[in-house]
Amino acid sequence: MPAESPVPFAATLHVRDHCLCLHLQRAARALARLFDEALRPLGLTNQQFSLLMSLNRPEPPSIAPVAKLLGMDRTTLTAALKPLERRGLVSVSPGDKDRRSRLLAITPEGIALLAEAVPIWRSTHDAVDKRLGEAEPERLRQTLRALS
């Protein structure tokens, strides 16, 4: 590094201490690891749990609304569906009106696995909420929704 950097080390420390994106990414990774570990006995990751949960609805959705809900692009969602489809947990079929569109459905096997996963998710989530304190979880959710 040059003797006199145009970006002083103090700026690095300021970003480290104040960057919302950095702190949100670190928290998201820590939470994902926590939930990944909790769901591991079922062979699920946190992302897969969220994906299965997003398909737990009365009518099979197309890719676009699921991608939007999960904050993913369509290509990433399509890739994330592949292992779940191979395991028989989800099915992807052509749309009724537009054969080019794809409808995503959770299978009975996916529902059964989700039924096992929800209590694990709840207990893990309750532990996280407890760490945040009495009113903080809902306040944090409101703040995060405002940012997304």
Automatic annotation (TrEMBL):
* InterPro entries reported for this sequence: HTH_MarR-typ, MarR/SlyA-like, WH-like_DNA-bd_sf, WH_DNA-bd_sf
Ranges where the HTH marR-type domain occurs: 17-148
SUPFAM superfamilies membership: Winged helix' DNA-binding domain
What's the protein name? MarR family transcriptional regulator
The source organism is Bosea rubneri
